[in-house]
Specification:
Strand content: 25-35%
Low-confidence stretches: none
Structural class: alpha/beta
Shape: globular
Mean pLDDT: 93
Distance between the termini: 19 Å
Strand order of the largest sheet: 2-9-1-10-11-12
């Protein structure tokens, strides 16, 4: 049976996901067969496995770092928020239902068998399971029904490393306060703490580390520096969504929808030094971009109404009439059609039908069964500015409740407006480069020859850099002693 180790954090975005990915990479490099696990994930950034199951992006990244294929067992429960108080509940890769937060809280322990079945199955196939918690284990209002932090650690008998984020300040209070709020048996599970995202001279931090170790009775396993890595982010806490400035040859504006999902679709366009990719929430931020991207969303109709109410829809329509390239992905693609209908309240309860932006000749109806599949092929003839994409190979995946008329082709087009259901479309070889070059030519800008980009090679380099950083900053001998139950 597999050994295990769990990463918990003092708060959301403390760095649990990346630290878990880094440990997966290290154990892989050291010759162990390792898999990630997170019992319950709440995120709008999801992925479809080869067998058509949906799972959180963080565990996909961790699986890639471990050198294995993503598997929905690594994330048996995925919550995709649809409103501020409700989520779509996905169990074992398939949609179960929509639930309000209080209903899910009451029923949460019903999902323990699914969690344990997934974990035990992985445990039989791997040497090590690296488990990621969620939020904080010290949420004292939720602890009695916990299945993702200390509740899970108890169920699978996992030792814990507790991570604090020094970049936000107050890391000693974070770590001490979290431990202080735990029950005695929970405290015993914490074998070490980690100070994450440190900038500066470690010597200045040392007196605080010694005091923290004394008052908590737990060793500090390491101080991890703030490091810039090009690795997919899990959710909308990503700092990339705060980018606003335009100062490069080609300008791409991404509409920052309230329920934006799978924003990693845009990552390939962010890797060119002559391209500005910025996120827009108000009409006055739009300016005159070379391309406007409408990304995916978990709540297409309500986000379209948000666009309409705050004036961004009118601004986008004006830009489209002026020749700006518009590209919609999944929910953003659906918005570009003539109409959106939800007769059964599948996606937006109470919003049965709304007019679309009428930039593409299609209508969308939301139905009960979600489309979940990987897809690949070759583009047919694509007209207009992006015609150089014609005949290129593509790959990606689809996750959507809506069915749209005229969506049989991978990319739909009318004039300067394009749309596709395919997430990861820009990851295909040469596709992002060709889009950027096409936008530059339309603008009359010569970018020269853009360097060919190998996304898979780049990804593996980033995972190795993450592992190197952790090896240099964590006491890996101590981590292995924890793993081997010697601590």
């Amino acid at each position: 049976m597999a050994k295990n180790i769990m990463i918990q954090g003092t708060m959301s975005n403390a760095g649990k996901s990346l630290l878990a990915a880094g440990l997966c990479r290290i154990f892989k490099q050291d010759g162990l067969k390792v898999a990630p696990f997170k019992s319950q994930n709440m995120a709008l950034n999801s992925f479809i496995t080869a067998d058509g199951k949906e799972m959180g992006r963080a565990q996909v990244v961790q699986a890639e770092a471990a050198g294995i294929l993503p598997d929905q067992r690594m994330n048996p429960i995925l919550l995709k928020p649809t409103t501020d108080v409700g989520s779509q509940v996905i169990v074992n890769g398939q949609v179960l239902t929509n639930m309000r937060a209080m209903e899910y809280y009451r029923r949460k322990q019903e999902f323990i068998p699914a969690v344990l079945d997934a974990y035990r199955s992985l445990e039989e196939e791997y040497d090590v399971i690296v488990i990621e918690g969620a939020g904080s284990p010290a949420e004292i209002n939720l602890k009695d029904r916990d299945i993702v932090n200390m509740g899970l650690a108890q169920l699978v008998d996992a030792p814990v490393l507790l991570v604090g984020d020094i970049d936000r300040g107050g890391v000693f209070a974070q770590l001490y306060g979290t431990i202080a709020l735990l029950e005695p048996e929970e405290k015993q599970r914490i074998k070490g703490t980690i100070v994450n995202k440190f900038r500066g001279d470690r010597a200045i931090l040392q007196p605080g580390i010694e005091i923290l170790e004394n008052i908590c009775g737990v060793p500090v396993a390491g101080v991890v520096p703030y490091v810039h890595l090009d690795i997919d982010d899990e959710d909308s806490l990503s700092t990339r969504l705060d980018t606003r400035e335009v100062h490069k040859a080609v300008d791409i504006a991404v509409i920052k929808l309230p329920r934006i999902s799978n924003f990693t679709d845009i990552s390939p366009l962010e890797r060119f030094q002559n391209v500005s990719v910025r996120y827009v929430e108000r009409p006055d931020q739009l300016g005159k971009p070379d391309m406007i991207l409408l990304p995916g969303t978990k709540s297409t109709i309500s986000d379209l109404l948000w666009l309409r109410q705050n004036g961004l829809e009118a601004a986008i329509l004006k830009q489209a009439a002026g020749g700006c390239v518009i590209f919609g992905i999944c929910g953003g693609y659906q918005m570009l059609g003539r109409s959106l209908s939800d007769p059964d309240g599948v996606e937006s309860p109470g919003l049965r039908q709304v007019k679309g932006m009428e930039l593409l000749d299609m209508d969308t109806v939301f139905e009960g069964e979600k489309v979940q599949r990987q897809t690949q092929g070759v583009f047919g003839t694509i007209p207009g500015v992006l015609s150089p994409l014609s005949g290129r190979s593509y790959h990606g995946y689809e996750i959507h409740m809506g069915r749209s008329t005229g969506s049989e082709q991978p990319v739909q087009c009318r004039g300067n407006v394009y749309g596709s259901y395919i997430h990861g479309l820009f990851d295909g070889e040469g596709i992002a480069q060709q889009i950027v070059q096409s936008l530059a030519r339309k603008k009359g800008v010569d970018l020269g020859s853009l360097e060919a980009f190998d996304p898979e090679r780049h990804k593996q380099q980033q995972y190795d850099l993450l592992a190197d950083t952790l090896r240099a900053s964590l006491d890996m001998d101590f981590v292995y002693r924890i793993l081997n139950r010697e601590v």
